[in-house]
Amino acid sequence: MKTLTGIPASGGVGLAQFFIYTENVPLDIPRFHIQKETVRAEWDRFCSALDKARIEIEAVRNDSLKENNEILDAHLLMLEDPVFNKQVKDRLETYLLNVECVVFDVSREIIQKLIASPVEYFHERAVDIDDVAQRILRLLLDVKKETLADLTEDVVVIARNILPSDMLTMNRQRVKGIALDAGSKTSHTAILAKAFGIPAVMGLSQVTQEALDRQKAGENELVFVNGENGEVIFDLNDKTIVYKTFVQNFRNYRKNTAELMANLPAETLDGCRVTLNANIEIPEEAEQALAFGSEGIGLYRSEFLFLTHGQPAEEEAQFNAYCRVIKAMNGNPVTIRTVDIGGDKIASNRGGAVEKNPLLGARAIRFSLAFPEIFKTQLRAILRASVFGNIRIMFPMISCIVELRQALALLEEAKEQCRMKGHAFADNIPVGCMIEVPVAAEIADILAEKSAFFSIGTNDLIQYSLAVDRNNEMVNYLAQPFHPGVLRFIKKTIDAAHSANIKAAMCGELAGDTGATALLLGLGLDEFSMTASSIPRIKKIIRSVSMQDCRILAEKVRECKSAQEVQGVLDANKALP
Fold first, then answer.
1. Which of 300, 377, 387, 403 is the most exposed place for a label (fewest CB within 10 A)?
2. Which of the residues are catalytic?
3. Alpha-carbon distance 38 to 46, whole Å?
């Protein structure tokens, strides 16, 4: 068998013949000079292409499920972006090049700036810009676009990348898995794959070439996609029946576990109750969260409302999005994390310098404090939505008490602005902070004085604690969640929370790791927040262990001197049947 390993982006397993989707191979863009008197005609062609693109996107929007509207709305806004359109017009007039060439150059420059950022979120927004630019270029060149909508057989789609618009129009019933050269867990494509329940592995680098080589050799074989561990397997040979059986058993197990666990409490054998919440990206994921037995939303990422060519959503758009989540959760708590993006793109649009290292720059709460009007717009929208349900506010990447005080002061200003405008909001909204940097864990006792709860963001805590860029293939093996230092930060945070009589939650990927559940229970974690589909499995583990045993496990782990030793202890105490 030939196994490729990438990033597990959407859980589940799938098996089918592979289908190589090459539609996103770059277009052949002509480049030639034009006469000054034809500039107007070229501009008119561009405007006509924008109008046609708008019609196409709106048609997809009307046929698509409403939970995908945020992505399509973002694409529509890109067509209206005055910065992009002005750049196209200025280049036409200055360089006297054909409009296809100008559109390509302008979009490439924007995309390259986003990709150059160390912040993964900007990389994924580059995909959306590429999606819209490719649509405009196809219309200018009169190139017909093939889609995945016409699939008539079950397939595993293999591609360099799949644009969000392709995901929205494909025949989902026929797609049993996705394997991509590019992409990550935070891409729109990954998020849509999760929403559609399609197993997906990304960041495989060579999977398209592997499939092309096999196709040239006359092989159109079955391929196995494991969205749980990031494996894609070719050459199943005499193991085909084994894998078909495995896929069916896995799906039955998932379905039965979800149905069985949905309405049961997350309670250990000796009666210790914890809370299981869901992480969501788009409002309609709230309904799916409830179906999997979520007790609330532990992390609503608001980033989707903020980056469309660097422009944050208006207050009303944010208010409507928050209301949809709150109402869907029927009184269950909804924790909205204020925007967690870097400031390089948005700051540059406001006269600020582009940051060389946004990962260590004006991101998350630092960005919000640097742009208080943007921050207060978001806070007003959250406050106004609070009258419709049970809401909590969470500040990301707090590193000192001064930042927390400043954020709370701006929240008070937002409240006063709501009062002046006659907007009602709920009293005593719980406000907490994320523990994502080592110093925050070290001063957790100080931060607890001004916090209603903590939520541990393990993705960044690991990254900053170990000085490891988890997206760098050369060093990401060092991003070890079970490093003794990381576990000490987690334990210190939990203890500080309990000393202050507040709860400690976790919303990073570690919260949904079945191998970590018993340990986290033993460390005293009160709330777990994860991808909704992971909730049944985590709940099953919780209901199969005793808190006493989990504490003993945690004590054994505290004696370990390396991540490898910790993993060995956990492997010897697996709680999952």
1. 387
2. 188, 507
3. 13
